[in-house]
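Practice problem. Given the sequence and the SMILES for zinc ion, write out the predicted structure.
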Amino acid sequence: MRLMFVCIEEAKELGRQVATGACPHCEGKVIAIDIESKWKFCCLPISYVDKRKYFCTLCSRRLVLYDHYQPWCD
Ligand SMILES: [Zn+2]
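Answer key:
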């Protein structure tokens, strides 16, 4: 008998807001997006992860918040 394991990640956007700081590449505005991730294993939810991701609104680069006021690129 062969068992099949399926892991599914469901990501849900919880909200977005303008973050402090500017993009180091184009000085554009930085937006913070809160994402809730659910990992499912055979229909059983196994973890919930809340992430905050940062993106530049001008050049769309993914940014990492290095400290509270200075976002930097990956
Ligand atoms: Zn930018």
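Check your answer against the key. Residues 23, 25-26, 28, 56, 58-59, 61 surround zinc ion (CB under 6 Å).
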